[in-house]
Design brief:
Layout (H helix, E strand, L loop, with lengths): L3 E3 L2 E3 L7 H17 L23 H11 L5 E4 L11 E3 L1 E2 L1 E10 L3 E2 L9 H14 L13 E9 L6 E2 L2 E10 L5 H14 L8 E9 L2 E2 L4 H14 L4 E3 L7 H4 L5 E4 L13 E3 H19 L1
Parallel strand pairs: 3-14, 4-13
Antiparallel strand pairs: 1-2, 2-15, 5-12, 6-10, 6-11, 7-9, 8-10
Helix pairs in contact: 1-7, 5-7
């Protein structure tokens, strides 16, 4: 939690994801405004928390406030660590949607030696979960990979090895492309439940939470500025994709803004000893400043 510079690297929580990007943005803006004090438009920084949590505050509330005031965002540059092997080799032009489900099956507790006197929810859940894992939701498209289903948590049992549990809870997530809607996914899950004789009710509950819808930024001024700035500063020709998790861009894109994610190499994010090269941050600031020049000078 205390930043440390060592052997040309900046170590610390968030150094790469994504406080280093924020520092580079501020440095770039200082340089740009000093060079172009009469630039077009306005530049604002949106610095929030809650992005990887419930996402009910932070950017969501700011976007609502801007909308109420009639203020429109034209370009949103998100400093997510998008780069893979070298700075600027990858930018994100969109993100998949994220839909979470929590399934609870209730059975009847009993002794493992007398299964006829119990109802094991784990046994009933096993073929269902296998079917959900095997389901082909779609084939993706030019910009998005196929929709994926992943189980993140399963809980059942008392801890004893001779007790049939009375309930099972499974938490899962679907990362979906523009080929899907949350409603269509939910309908298919409910249909698979029905195929396994599991009807929603007291003994079968399914709660949904939509974390965000997919978005895609088309060709435009922001993408052109990012691509050209990266090549001018690093000589790298960038690749555009939509892989990875979600970002706050999902709340800004529906307003009509062009959204681009560009930041450092993501090799150490969410890890112990997260770090970023100091020289990489200097180059990133130069890229951001060049983007400002191309868009607002």
């Amino acid at each position: 939690f205390v930043p440390e510079m060592r052997d040309g690297m900046l170590y610390g929580r968030g150094a790469c994801d994504m406080k280093g990007s924020l520092a580079a943005m501020i440095t770039a803006t200082e340089a740009f405004v000093a060079a172009c004090p009469d630039h077009k438009g306005s530049i604002a920084f949106l610095i929030t928390s809650d992005e990887e949590g419930p996402a009910v505050d932070g950017t969501v509330k700011v976007v609502e406030a801007l909308s109420a005031r009639g203020e429109r965002i034209d370009y949103a540059l998100v400093g997510e660590p998008s780069s893979h092997r070298s700075l600027g080799d990858v930018v994100k032009i969109g993100r998949r949607g994220s839909l979470n489900g929590k399934l609870t099956l209730r059975g009847k507790q009993g002794h493992v030696a007398y299964p006829q006197l119990a109802d094991n929810p784990v046994h009933r859940a096993a073929p269902l979960l296998a079917a959900l894992c095997a389901e082909v939701w779609d084939k993706g498209n030019e910009h998005f990979p196929p929709t994926s289903f992943q189980i993140s948590n399963i809980q059942a049992g008392t801890g004893a090895d001779n007790v049939i549990p009375d309930a099972l809870t499974a938490v899962f997530n679907l990362r979906f492309s523009t080929e899907q809607t949350p409603e269509a996914i939910q309908e298919r899950v409910h249909a698979i439940l029905a195929e396994h004789d599991l009807a929603l009710g007291r003994n079968c509950e399914l709660d949904w939470h939509l974390s965000g819808l997919p978005f895609l930024t088309p060709e435009g001024e922001l993408l052109d500025a990012g691509r050209d700035a990266i090549e001018a500063v690093t000589g790298v020709q960038t690749e555009r994709n939509t892989v990875g998790g979600t970002s706050d861009g999902r709340f800004i894109a529906p307003t009509g803004a062009q959204v681009l994610e560009l930041g450092p190499i993501n090799a150490t994010i969410h890890k112990v000893n997260e770090c970023v090269a100091c020289a990489e941050l200097d180059q990133l600031a130069a890229i951001y400043a060049e983007m400002l020049r191309r868009l607002l000078a």
